[in-house]
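Run log, item B.
One chain of 80 residues. Sequence copied directly from the ordering sheet:
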Amino acid sequence: MKVSAIITLKKDVLDPQGKVIHQALDGMGFENISEVRQGKYFEIDVNENDPSKAKAVVEDMCKKLLANLVIENFKIIETQ
């Protein structure tokens, strides 16, 4: 079963890469953007048939390794 997770910086944490992306988009004519925040996307294939168990495994991975919980949030976005 595939589980997807997105890791992003918390709102109060400075995002210099997001700021550079925002400036580049503004320079390309996309002037109606107020903010850009960048993050990481993971698609993990878990050997589990139960969606809730697969989600729990990936959530545990995020808490223990994939996300720095001091400065990042994570969200499980889908299970297939």
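Observations after the first pass:
- The chain has a mean pLDDT of 96.
- The first strand starts at residue 2 and ends at 9.
Flagged for discussion on Thursday.
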